[in-house]
Specification:
mainly alpha, 231 residues, single chain
Length: 231
Amino acid sequence: MIETTSTRLLLALLHLCDSLFPIGGFGCSDGLETATVVGLIETPADLQAWLDVCLDEVVGRMDGPAAVRAWSAFERRDWQALCELDDEITAMRPSSAIRRSTRAMGRRLVTTWSALYPNRWLERLLDLAREQRRGPALPVAFGCVCASAGVGVRDAGAAFAYTRLASTTSAALRLMRIGQTEAHARLATALGRAPMVVEAMTTRARPESFTPAMDISAMAQPYLHSRLFRS
C-alpha cells in the first residue's frame, strides 16, 4: 500500500510537470526573447548564466519560496494568507505582461487540475479567485495544487524549480542557435544545483526579488517589432 501511494504521488507530480499539461507556459519566455533580440543572450554560456540567475534569484528567492509558503497556507486552509501572498508575489513583477501571464497560467493550472483531480479545497481557492477577480499567480497555484495532491513540500519545491528551468530551456531552443544536446546540457548543470537551492528556499522567511536585467527584458517584450512569445 505504501508503494502504491508513493507511485501515485510520483505519477501525479510527473503529470503536473509535463510540458503537455495545458497551462499556456509555452507562450511565455519571461523576457528571454528580448534578451536574445538585443544580443544579451547569444551563446550557450550566456544561456547558462541566465538559467543560473533564474534558479538562484527567481526560483530560489522569489517564486520558489512563494510556492512553498502557498503549500503551507493551503495545508492550513489559511485563505487570508494565500490572498496576501498572491498580492505580494504579483506586485513583485514590474512587467504588466508578466503579471497578467502568471495569473492567467495560475488560474488555468488550478482550474484544469481541479477538473482532473477534484478537490473541494481547490474549488474554494477558485471561488476566492472569482470573487476577487484575480489570480492565483502561478507559483501560488503550483504550491496549492501540490498540497492538494499530497506531494511533499520539498518535492513541490524541486518540481517547481524543474518546470521553471525546463520552460526557459524550451524557449531558448526556439530563440537561439543552440542544439538540443547543448541546451539540455545547460539545463542539467542548473538542475545539478537545484537541490541545494530548494533546501535553502524552504527556510526563507518571505519572497524577495532582485533581477534587474530580467525585469527590463520582460518589460521591453511587448514592444518588440515581432515576437514569438507574449511575455
